Amino acid sequence: MSEAGTRMSAEIAEQPAVFDAVLARRAELAEVAELAAAHRPRFALLAARGSSDHAALYAKYLIEVLLELPTGLVSPSTTTLYGAQPDLTGALYVTVSQSGGSPDLVEATKAARGRGALTVAVTNTPGSALSAVAEHTVAIGAGEELAVAATKTYTATLLTLYLLVDAARGGSGEHAAGLGELAASTLADTAAGVAAAVERYREIDRVVTTGRGYSSASAAEAALKLAETSYLGARSYSGADLLHGPVAAVDESTGVVAVTSRGRGGEAMRDVLAAVHERGADVLAVGSAAEDMPASRRIVLPDTAEEVAPILEILPLQRLALELALARGGDPDQPRGLSKVTRTR
């Protein structure tokens, strides 16, 4: 039997090479993006579950900001449980699923195609049931992932979605160039900061994660990782929503992980963190703007364009989840009650 956390640790370390592999396939991804753009969709819909749902949230920001196309996150159960049949003529329907095996996503995608949508599957399993029902399939290409907690498949999905949206707007992928090298330096340079955060948070039971804009996805994914590996009571809130009530539950016993990269989203977090910091919460700021934020401790990341920052932001947070689980006596490779593929309807 392997040591606890071995698989998750190895897959976190693989991500720089995975990024390079995804970037090498940019032309292939651009072909699908051009086909989708040629249909001139009126709006976009994104269907996903779990970590893939957080990747879809990132894509929602990308599509709405970079393509200025109205975009929504789908509730598959409106189709699978309630039998709703909306007219999806002119819709771009993108289903994001690492496994491509969840029955509700397969059924909803098939139904969307039958109701007039252009369907695209973004999956790490090209031969999956999802690929069979979608009109186009985009392979994430992260390789087999053995740990239950998604790490390399999540970030490879983010990068794949970015390259698709960037190509649809006629971009060259320039903001993503070199992300493999930046990922390697990020993992190396943040190790000490992660270790310090583990020492601080190993005894707490409640964590709030927060971010704005593109980084909302990073905050949501960080909360999921901390909950599923360390069994923490972790909740994610938009920085805007945090001050509309949930801040009342934040005090000296609450760990607050704030994702703050340079750009409009990160800047919008400044007043939020000042208010939270004043309540005595232990604030860990993570991102390229972390050193300028009101916080108790910081993990500073390299500067990038704001639209690709989430691809790097999550790396030290994955490592935090891994090492915190180990420090608390758990095995993040075998979280209780979880399996690699979750089948819902």
Automatic annotation (TrEMBL):
Residues 32-174, 197-335 form the SIS domain. InterPro entries: GlmS/AgaS_SIS, GlmS/FrlB_SIS, SIS_dom, SIS_dom_sf. GO terms for biological process: carbohydrate derivative metabolic process. It holds the Pfam family SIS. One of its GO terms (molecular function) is carbohydrate derivative binding. Transmembrane segments: none annotated. Keywords: Repeat. The keyword Repeat applies. Gene3D superfamilies: Glucose-6-phosphate isomerase like protein, domain 1. Signal peptide: none annotated. This is Glucosamine-6-phosphate deaminase. It comes from Actinophytocola xanthii.
